[in-house]
Design brief:
The chain is of the alpha+beta class. It is globular, with a radius of gyration of 23 Å. The model is unreliable at 12-29 (pLDDT under 50).
């Protein structure tokens, strides 16, 4: 059976046409992170975010290009798809009233023979985590800003699903889902709104909360800023309570100084991070104490992109095993929807070898087509290429790195990366000035050989998808000067030759030359652009930004003289 999970705007503005004001809004104002996942014959085939193909950051429109991409990669025709699952933006009854008028009409053009179903937003989040790990049974928690929504008769949203939990048993085909009671001031909304106010206060610019260029970035920017706060005593701004099921409530409304007072942006960021981390921790502790979850815990939803909070949760050992997919945000909804479609059909969901690398592969012909009018050399021996490139990195050159299948999710994980020597502290400023043009307080991440983790970091644990931050050991902070943050933390990804053979080989060569098994790793993109996808994207970006060299599989590309 061939199943497609599809997330993106599907005429939401048409569905709420009773409200003229909302009609004027574009479709992408309703969704973000549009994506498609195709699972062919029960085995996962390919996933892609629409933004990678349209070059529109956070693109939430109907994923036309992603559909074409996935069908092509799987060598399938639109008539070959049996089931299409669409994560919802509204409640089931709403769709029962309108699916034949709008949703089915639009989707049917692309999948004429498929059965089309609508699924809960949060349920798809849960499936994205549950079916991207090898736990046969366990539990899940979903936390975000807003999932499936409810509308009143005027088209206005009056409730949003923002937390849920449940348990699963894959072998027995069991999946029990408990939707939480909608809350206005929930964890996701609380952090996002406060982050917006803090960021605007910090940079002193008039930015709209819904500005598509910024709306998904406030949280990450403020998370980095929190390390510069120097608060000694924190004010608790949350409480957990029990009303049928455990819940967490935030006391202050974002933007109003309740427990944040007249603080600097740095201290507000630190206060915000404290409340966010501890509210999440206490909520999940409450679920565990009341036996709503067990020791195999799967987490999903945009809240779990906050790696500092993830780290606090991990360090406190609330449960024995935690799994967060590399796509916990809305990007991963299509993966969860496709897995849901297979599970409902009693099909076995077979995990891909590496769940972070789900794009298609590009052969030498496609690469060489992109290299017309460039200077390049193809290496028959990949080890030799890595030996050359590691020398460039040791000499502080900035490398564009393109290998294998692209990452599915918001982070560069060694397939579409920009790499640099992590040792000189000044390299952070160098890459920022030449390439990324980010706020100076934001840290850069690292990528390392997993076997050296304990030597360099405290409180170590597997970190294949860069979902946790670790504290750098004191005697290693100078060696990792460009990626050690103000609070001595580092956003690190660990790799091995089973999951990431190409970047592992490069790191081994670099370690042989320098005695350092770690590189600075940031996303391969121009400022304000999504991460690149194709060889042509790589070449175009290489020509537009100040990279020294570009590596595409076995090809080494240099700047035209």
């Amino acid at each position: 059976m061939n199943v497609v999970g599809l997330y993106g705007a599907i005429g939401w503005n048409v569905l709420i046409s009773d409200n003229p004001k909302l009609l004027k809004q574009s479709e992408d104002s309703w969704t973000h992170g549009a994506s498609v996942t195709l699972i062919k014959d029960g085995e996962h085939c390919v996933s892609i975010s629409e933004e990678r193909l349209t070059k529109i950051k956070y693109d939430g429109n109907f994923p036309r290009k992603s559909i074409e991409y996935c069908l092509s990669a799987a060598n399938l025709d639109k008539n070959d798809i049996d089931v299409v699952i669409i994560p919802s933006m509204a409640n089931q009854q709403f769709y029962k009233n309108y699916i034949n008028k709008t949703v089915e009409k639009k989707v049917r053009r692309y999948f004429p023979k498929a059965k089309i179903e609508i699924a809960s937003h949060h349920l798809c989040h849960a499936y994205s985590s549950v079916f991207s790990c090898d736990y046969n049974e366990g539990s899940f928690v979903t936390l975000d800003n807003a999932g499936s929504v409810l509308f009143d008769t005027t088209g206005q949203i009056f409730a949003c699903e923002n937390h849920s939990f449940g348990y699963f048993n894959k072998k027995k085909g069991l999946f029990k889902y408990y939707p939480g009671i909608p809350q206005t001031n929930n964890l996701g909304n609380y952090y996002w709104m406060w982050a917006y106010h803090i960021y605007v206060n910090k940079i002193q610019k008039d930015i709209q909360l819904t500005d598509p260029k910024y709306r998904e970035t406030f949280c990450g920017k403020v998370m980095g800023l929190s390390a510069y706060g120097n608060i000694k005593e924190f004010k608790k701004d949350y409480r957990t309570h029990f009303e049928g099921i455990p819940q967490v409530a935030l006391e202050s409304f974002p933007g109003r100084d309740f427990n944040y007072g007249n603080l600097s942006p740095e201290n507000k960021a630190k206060q915000l991070q404290y409340n966010f981390e501890n509210a999440m921790l206490e909520y999940i502790k409450e679920l565990k104490e009341k036996d709503y979850i067990n020791d195999n815990l799967c987490l999903a939803g945009g809240v779990f992109l906050n790696i500092l909070a993830n780290s606090v949760l991990r360090k406190n050992n609330v449960v024995e095993n935690i799994h967060i997919p590399p796509f916990p945000d809305d990007t991963g909804l299509s993966f969860g929807a496709a897995a849901l479609g297979l599970f409902k059909s009693k099909e076995v969901v077979k995990l891909p070898h590496n769940i972070s690398l789900l794009g298609k592969t590009y052969d030498d012909t496609e690469i060489e087509d992109a290299l017309v009018d460039t200077e390049y050399k193809k290496y028959d021996d990949f080890n030799e290429l890595c030996d050359v490139v590691s020398g460039y990195l040791a000499d502080n050159k900035i490398i564009g790195w393109f290998q294998n299948r692209s990452e599915f999710g918001p982070r560069a994980l060694g397939s579409r990366s920009i790499l640099m020597n992590p040792t000189p502290q000044k390299n952070k400023d160098t890459i920022n000035k030449r390439i990324k043009h980010r706020e100076e307080w934001r840290p850069f991440a690292g990528i390392m050989l997993e076997e050296y983790q304990e030597e360099y970091f405290m409180d170590t644990y597997p970190n294949e998808y860069m979902l946790y931050s670790l504290i750098v050991r004191p005697h290693k902070r100078r060696q990792l000067g460009a990626i050690t943050h103000k609070d001595f933390s580092c956003r690190i990804q660990t790799v091995n030759d089973q999951l990431h053979p190409e970047v592992t080989t490069l790191l081994q060569k670099y370690n042989e030359k320098t005695g350092c098994p770690i590189l600075l790793n940031t996303s391969f993109n121009d400022n304000g652009q999504p991460i690149i996808e194709t060889p042509q994207d790589a070449v175009d970006t290489f020509n537009n930004i100040d990279l020294d060299y570009l590596i595409i599989n076995n090809f080494l590309i240099t700047k035209n003289k």
